[in-house]
């Protein structure tokens, strides 16, 4: 009997959530331990799947297809390529880290600690599902259903204007989702006219449609993903959501959920609408560059630590989007690697930042100061996370940012050059808070802040280790990503520009 | 002159006849059974009639696709599906109706009079509601299978008259309830007149009231098109009034608010199924070839209904009024199924009607639970913080709202997808785009209620949730289970609908 690895991995957290619901009311510690254990088992299952993954095989692997709603031609169909595998790995590794790092963050919520972890586990199931779905309808269902747990995580357990932020997040996402639904309906009807209703992405990629139709449908998908990612000018929900959510939720939101947007651009926009993607590429590259610069500049001006991290992410997502739509195999490999690395560097920033905020009781950057002397370990961790965010050579983000820029340069040199400004600004938006929060004289009131305890050290260690290790030796991931990215690129009919040497 | 006695196919008409018999027995029970035993007996009789009728509907589904009662009734697949849906909705809501707290004990007494007080104190309960409900159900069962204009009109009146009465029976805020009943009656009579007027025009056009005859005249195309157009317009107005499409919706917010909540739920769900059933039959079979006369008109109606319902719902501060406007918006979504005019549209409409009906009954069931000392509280501000005090009730309501909003993994999503894709297939792109956009607007006010229940702290004079009686609990639980099941595993119902959803002319 063969094991359906994807379904197994996705089901584990869901089973955990159901069992968790049966726990008695007061058992908070038990609930945490149980949730943590579940995410560890899930991670182990995903890693076992990754070990069996054949990296040179560009077909979808671990494919499982079951009929779900036959009258609409809808299947429960899952399968992964290298890109999806990397993102699933990132999600399942981040989940236990988030739980361990934010051990006490569910305490201030409107509802019980147990509910918090049920929501997290349900969300994890959906994260695995959304990256592995190969049926457009299934993808859409999970894409939309994911909003519900996140909405309650932000609104129920966040701080400050949490319900307003949660509603803003939900309405933005729903609006984008409905535009996508309109496109999906159109695709569905067209597939019916051309040989039977289906949502199989491989079959849909061969649909014949006029270029006008294709452009409209592309926009339906793209705007949904651009809101999710988020790309300027669809980004305004993100800073509010990140500011209000707990650090753990923010990690999942920015680290994993927003990746669904960029993942969707590769998997759906490029594959289903290659012609329209080409048509809109110039415009999207411009938006991406605006995101890079705009996010960076606004990050520099932020006084709130969480908002700052949110704006840095908008800048990073600009890089990722640019890499995707530059449509060279290098830029797309870089973009995928960037998604993975951004997950970890943002996680590090939010987790350490969250500890700083919890200790100080404030998220305003100017309330910190001199933490280097008081809490050296925490300060070093934050510093390292910051360096990863600004893509210091030797850390993982450098490799991906470099690949994106090199890949983009071969086709859009001007865009790549402008985007490098973002790197300079990144140095500013990271070094300024590092200087204000960590160095200088200790701000009164901060003298007695405790340094990281053992649990926190254990939680952050794998993240920082991954950042450093993949900085020096990214090939394990790139070996998985490269064939998949090259495959996507060849599918949509792009070849890398051949470098020419001038003057001969 | 020969006079043949009419032949009646009793087995095919049995569902309607069983319900009518149940209603008549109910009237006799009122006369002969003692006061104390009446509620139990009445509930049992009503329930038995509904279940028997449902069983009979299931039994005759193989015999379907034939006419009965000298061609004035058509028993075909869609007709039976509508009848089944109406009966299931009625069974779910009868438990809610059986919760006597919602009805006045002596409807004839003046509001606030001594007589009323005495009746309430004596613990008299109102059991006439059961036969009334059954009469209404009988009309609803006949409405979507009627096959000539006269039968259609009779069914319309049979279903409407009991509802007018039932709307006025609320125990609390009786004046508002009576006002609602009067308004419903006057406007309903008005729309019946329109309907009859249109029927006369159609008769003038075709020389017959039978659907087959009108269809033949439309296909033949020899009649006067102006008269046909007038006939279609006036008959449509009568039907659009029943489904509360804009601009014929003015009655519905007031009636929804004033009527006893269980009745509102039953009416909102079952009337919609019956009226859309009749509308689909009329426009899919009789007038399909005259689509250029009515489709543009219906597109406009659908578009303004969706937009108006969604937009106005945003500003509502009363949960029942909010649900009324939401039901107006849903009428707009359902009209896209009529516009689709293809088989997919028919299947989608049937699915949508059933899913929406079940969720509606469940949602109104929950509304009956939220009360303070003076009765039901429908002011939304006082629903604040409900999630804290009664997490289960609030979660269930939130789930119904998500189903109305069409969030995936609820029945509403599958319905919306099906109906919009059918409409798109027929080329009504503009209607679909408006539908999708108004779904986004509609999501806003559903989510606002969720925010209110879960993320807002309770005001001081907070409301309490009464412990639901076993009957109400049953209604809510069944609705919830069906709504979840239809969202996650819609395939069995869709597959069941597919082979049956073919109108015969």
How would you sum up this structure, described in words?
The complex is a heterodimer of chains A (504) and B (505). With 504 residues, chain A is mainly α. Chain A has a domain at 273-497. Chain A has helices at 5-21, 28-52, 82-101, 113-132, 136-145, 147-157, 162-193, 201-204, 211-228, 237-244, 247-272, 274-301, 305-326, 329-360, 371-374, 376-389, 396-411, 413-438, 454-472, 475-491, and strands spanning 61-69, 74-80. Chain B has one domain. Chain B contains 20 helices and five strands. Chain B has helices spanning 10-32, 38-59, 77-98, 114-121, 129-142, 149-167, 174-206, 211-220, 225-242, 251-258, 261-286, 291-314, 319-340, 343-367, 386-389, 391-405, 411-425, 429-455, 470-488, 491-500, and strands at 66-68, 73-75, 370-372, 375-376, 464-465. Chain B is globular, with a radius of gyration of 22 Å. The A-B interface holds A 67-72, 110-111, 140-142, 144-145, 147-148, 152, 155-156, 162-163, 166-167, 170-171, 174-175, 178-179, 181-182, 185-186, 188-189, 192 and B 347, 387-388, 391, 402, 407-409, 413-414, 417-418, 420-421, 424-425, 432-433, 436-437, 439-440, 443-444, 447-448, 451, 454-456, 490-491, 494-495, 498.
Q: What assembly state would you assign to the polypeptide chains in this entry?
A: heterodimer
Number of helices of chain A: 20
Record field, number of beta strands of chain B = 5
Radius of gyration of chain A: 22 Å
| Largest beta-sheet characterization of chain B | 3 strands, antiparallel
Strand content of chain B: under 5%
Radius of gyration of chain B: 22 Å
The rounded distance between the terminal residues' Cα atoms of chain B is 30 Å
Largest sheet of chain A: 2 strands, antiparallel
**Separation, N- and C-terminal Cα atoms of chain A:** 62 Å
Order of helices and strands of chain A: HHEEHHHHHHHHHHHHHHHHHH
Count of DSSP helices of chain B? Answer: 20
């Amino acid at each position: 009997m063969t094991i359906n690895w994807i379904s197994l991995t996705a089901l584990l957290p869901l089973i955990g959530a159901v069992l968790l619901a049966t726990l008695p009311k007061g058992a908070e510690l038990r609930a945490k331990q149980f949730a943590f254990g579940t995410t560890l088992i899930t991670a182990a299952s995903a890693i076992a799947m990754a070990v069996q993954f054949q990296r040179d095989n560009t077909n979808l692997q671990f494919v499982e297809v079951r009929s779900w709603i036959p009258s609409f031609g809808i299947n429960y169909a899952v399968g992964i390529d290298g890109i999806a595998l990397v993102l699933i790995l990132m999600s399942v590794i981040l989940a236990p880290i988030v739980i361990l790092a934010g051990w006490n963050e569910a305490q201030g919520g409107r509802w019980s600690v147990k509910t918090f972890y049920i929501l997290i586990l349900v969300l994890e199931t959906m994260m695995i599902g959304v990256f592995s779905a190969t049926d457009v309808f299934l993808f859409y269902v999970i894409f939309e259903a994911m909003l519900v747990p996140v909405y309650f995580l932000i609104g129920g357990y966040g701080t400050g204007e949490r319900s307003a932020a949660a509603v803003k997040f939900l309405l933005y996402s729903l609006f984008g989702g409905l535009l996508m639904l309109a496109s999906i309906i159109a695709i569905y009807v067209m597939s019916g006219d051309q040989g039977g209703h289906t949502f199989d992405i491989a079959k849909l990629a061969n649909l014949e449609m006029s270029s006008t139709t294709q452009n409209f449908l592309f926009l339906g998908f793209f705007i949904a993903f651009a809101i999710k990612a988020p790309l300027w000018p669809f980004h305004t929900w993100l800073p509010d959501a990140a500011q209000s959510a707990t650090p753990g939720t923010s990690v999942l939101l920015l680290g994993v959920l927003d990746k669904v947007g960029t993942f969707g651009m590769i998997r759906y926009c490029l594959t289903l609408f290659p012609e329209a993607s080409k048509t809109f590429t110039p415009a999207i590259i411009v938006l991406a560059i605006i995101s890079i610069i705009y996010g960076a500049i606004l990050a520099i001006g932020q006084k709130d630590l969480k908002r700052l991290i949110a704006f840095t992410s908008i800048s990073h997502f600009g890089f990722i989007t640019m890499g995707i739509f530059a449509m060279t195999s290098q830029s797309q490999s870089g973009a995928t690697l960037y998604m993975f690395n951004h997950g970890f560097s943002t996680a590090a920033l939010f987790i350490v930042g969250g500890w700083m905020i919890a200790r100080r009781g404030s998220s305003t950057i100017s309330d910190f100061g001199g933490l280097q002397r008081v809490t050296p370990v925490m300060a070093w961790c934050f510093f390292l996370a910051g360096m990863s965010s600004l893509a210091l050579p030797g850390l993982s983000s450098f490799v991906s940012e470099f690949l994106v820029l090199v890949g983009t340069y071969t086709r859009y040199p001007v865009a790549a050059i402008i985007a490098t400004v973002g790197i300079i600004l990144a140095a500013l938006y990271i070094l300024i808070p590092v200087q204000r929060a960590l160095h200088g004289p200790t701000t009164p009131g901060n003298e007695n802040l405790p340094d990281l305890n053992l649990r926190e050290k254990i939680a952050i260690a794998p993240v920082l280790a991954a950042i450093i290790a993949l900085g020096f030796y990214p090939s394990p991931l790139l070996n998985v990503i490269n064939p998949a990215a090259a495959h996507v690129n060849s599918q949509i009919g792009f070849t890398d520009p051949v470098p020419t040497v001038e003057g001969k | 002159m020969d006079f043949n006695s009419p032949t009646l196919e009793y087995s095919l008409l049995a569902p309607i006849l069983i319900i009518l018999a149940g209603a008549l027995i109910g009237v006799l029970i009122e006369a002969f059974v003692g006061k104390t035993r009446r509620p139990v007996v009445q509930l049992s009789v009503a329930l038995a009639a509904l279940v028997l009728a449902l069983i009979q509907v299931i039994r005759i589904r193989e015999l379907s696709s034939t006419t009965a009662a000298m061609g004035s009734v058509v028993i075909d697949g869609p007709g039976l599906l509508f009848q089944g849906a109406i009966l299931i909705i009625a069974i779910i809501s009868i438990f809610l109706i059986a919760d006597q707290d919602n009805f006045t004990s002596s409807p004839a007494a003046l509001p606030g009079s001594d007589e009323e007080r005495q009746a309430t104190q004596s613990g008299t309960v109102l059991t006439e509601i059961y036969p009334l409900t059954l009469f209404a159900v009988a009309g609803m069962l006949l409405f979507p299978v009627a096959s000539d204009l006269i039968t259609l009109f009779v069914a319309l009146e049979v279903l409407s008259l009991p509802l007018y009465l039932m709307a006025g029976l609320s125990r609390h805020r009786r004046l508002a309830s009576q006002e609602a009943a009067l308004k419903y009656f006057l406007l309903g009579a008005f729309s019946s007149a329109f309907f009859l007027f249109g029927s006369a025009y159609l008769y003038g056009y075709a020389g017959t009231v039978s659907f087959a005859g009108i269809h033949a005249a439309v296909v033949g195309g020899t009649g006067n098109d102006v008269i046909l157009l007038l006939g279609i317009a006036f008959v449509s107005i009568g039907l659009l009034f029943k489904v509360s499409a804009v601009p014929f919706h003015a009655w519905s917010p007031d009636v929804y608010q004033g009527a006893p909540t269980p009745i509102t739920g039953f009416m909102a769900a079952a009337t919609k199924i019956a009226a859309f059933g009749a509308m689909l039959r009329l426009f899919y079979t009789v007038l399909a070839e005259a689509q250029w006369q009515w489709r543009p008109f219906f597109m406009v109606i659908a578009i303004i209904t969706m937009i108006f319902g969604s937009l106005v719902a945003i500003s509502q501060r009363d949960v029942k009024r909010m649900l009324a406007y939401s039901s107006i918006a849903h009428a707009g979504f359902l009209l896209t199924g009529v516009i689709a005019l293809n088989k997919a549209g028919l299947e989608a409409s049937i699915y949508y009607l059933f899913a929406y009906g079940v969720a509606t009954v469940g949602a109104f069931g929950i509304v009956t639970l939220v009360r303070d000392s003076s009765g039901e509280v429908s002011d939304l501000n006082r629903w604040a913080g409900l999630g804290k005090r009664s997490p289960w009730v609030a979660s269930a309501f939130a789930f119904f709202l998500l189903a109305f909003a069409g969030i995936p993994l609820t029945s509403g999503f599958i319905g919306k997808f099906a109906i919009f894709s059918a409409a798109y297939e027929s080329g009504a792109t503009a209607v679909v785009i408006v539908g999708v956009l108004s779904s986004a607007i509609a999501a806003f006010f559903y989510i606002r209620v969720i925010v209110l229940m879960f993320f807002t702290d309770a005001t001081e004079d907070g409301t309490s949730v009464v412990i639901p009686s076993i009957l109400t609990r049953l209604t809510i639980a069944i609705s919830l289970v069906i709504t979840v099941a239809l969202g996650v595993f819609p395939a069995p119902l869709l597959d069941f609908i597919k082979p049956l959803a073919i109108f015969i002319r």
